[in-house]
Each structure stands twice: as structure tokens, then as C-alpha cells.
Amino acid sequence: MFYRKLSTCLTLALGTAFGSMAAAADFEFTxxxxxxxxxxxxxxxxxxxxxxxxxxxxxxxxxxxxxxxLGGDVEIIEQTQMGLVxxxxxxxxxxxxxxxxxxLFDLPFLMKDDAAMQxxxxxxxGTELLATLEPNNLHGIAMWGAGFRHMTNNIRPINGPxxxxxxxxxxxxxxxxxxxxxxxxxxxxxxxxxxVYNGLQQGVVEGQENPLANIGSMKFYEVQDxxxxxxxxxxxxxxxxxxxxxxxLPDDLKQVxxxxxIVGRDAARQFTAEYEGKTLEGIADQIEIQELSPEGRExxxxxxxxxxxxFRSLVTPELMDKAIAVAAGE
Length: 330
Known about the structure:
Oligomer: single chain
Distance between the termini: 82 Å
Structural class: alpha/beta
Largest sheet: 10 strands, mixed
Mean pLDDT: 93
Number of helices: 13
């Protein structure tokens, strides 16, 4: 009886082992990002993973590494270029350190609402920009995003660019954003996303800009007094793959990944809209919130024009003019 039980256990164990081997994926990809798991785009990354694994019939396995487990955005971009990470969704502001045409989406007040954002990101402009990443050893698939960025600070309410004078603002490590705040008279400082809360708490910086999803999830409202809903730039992410990892996929699996990226992108936008409403309601009694007036917006737009001229040749005049026209609905 003992040997019969032992034989049965061995048979089951071997069967499980061989079954696992048979079910092993043909491709295992690491998907890294800096976002905490409750944020809209982190949730959308899970949607992407589920879509890929389901529609590839298990031939592709996606291992998500969230919350800056593998480093900040710049480090993740570098790891994706090297193939240590296979998939990532870095902000285009950080990608601009590797590809200057990515400065485009950091130009302030380029896209005024979601309709303009979708025309630009999902159309010819977004496709052209993604294609420019190939020399960076990255294959661009889609443009994701986390909503429009807004300004918070501890010094005074922001009603126009003059109110930013002298304020120490944290920004992405993105030249166009740094140049923008200098043009407004602020003192911008690049700082890793994961360090911003402590930087604000300790007074190293006095303000920051982020979409509501990030302001809410990172609790920046706890260490800030004022928020103005400026909506001055869409916080765009480029969904990219390491080029060799992409090229190694057969055509049918490339189609699976592309389709799943679009599903993930749309899920991120839906999650973002839901999250923003809840965030505004939830923090209304913890930080002073105000809308940017039409006059304040116009003052910001006027003060932003030198940025467009400064980065025109880097983005290329053709792409900048096309983006401006598409954003305006022309």
C-alpha cells in the first residue's frame, strides 16, 4: 500500500511538472513602470497583461514590475533600450532626453481638452512620433497618458504666470518643462517622482505639477496648500517595447500585443476619468482648489510662446505645425 501511494504521488508530481513545462510561454516579457498599483495606468497595465496572455493563448507571459521596483523613469528607459526590461510606459517628457522630438507633448497649452488630446495622440502626429523611437532601440506602439497636469504649491494661489515667480517647482527631468517654468519666473528643479513627497514636506521644493491621478495616489495634497486646475499639458506616456524583443515576435503575436496596447490605453483613460472625479471630491477639504480663469489661461498661453520658438527646430517645424493644427481641430 505504501509503495502504491508513493507511486501515485510521484506520478502526480511528475505530471504536474511536465504539465508546467508544456504550458511554459514562448515569450516572457518584463513590463516596468514607476506607478503605484492603484493608479489608473498601473491598473491598465494589468488589463494589457491579461489581454496579451489570453489572446496569445499563453504563448506570451507578462511580468509587471510596478512602483519603481526597477528604478525611475530614466533608468527604466535605459533598461528597455538594453533589453533588461522589455515593455515600459515612460513619460514623453523623460523620453525627450533620448529623442528631442518628444519635446512636443511638453509644450504648454498645446491640447486644451480630451478631444484635442485624442486627435493628436491617436492620429498621425502620435504615429509619427512613435516611429522616431526606432533609432533609440525602442519600438513605439501607442500613446498612453494619465490626464492633464495641474499645479500645486505652498506659497500662493496660481492665477497666472506672474504668480509662479520665485517658487521652487519640482518637474520631470524634461528640458521643455524646465524651460517653461523658467519662462514663467519660477525656479524649477528636476526630481525623481518617488522623491517628490519628501521634497515638498521638507521644503526642498515648494510646488509641483502632476495629473490628479498622481497627486491623489502620492498624497501630494497632504504637503501642499494650493492647487490650480491649469490643465496646461497632457501627461503623455509612450507605450514602448525593446526593439529586439518586438522584432523577435511572429506577426500574429505582434498583432496581439498591438491590440492589447490599445485596449490598455483606452482602459487607462476610462480609469483616469473615474479616478479624477473621486480624487477632487476626496481632497477638497485638504487643499485649496481653484479653476484657472480664461484670462489666466490667456496670460499663460502668451507667456508660453517663447517655449514654442525655443523647441521648434528640435521638434521640427513640420511636426509642430501639424500638431498645433490638429489640436485646434483644423
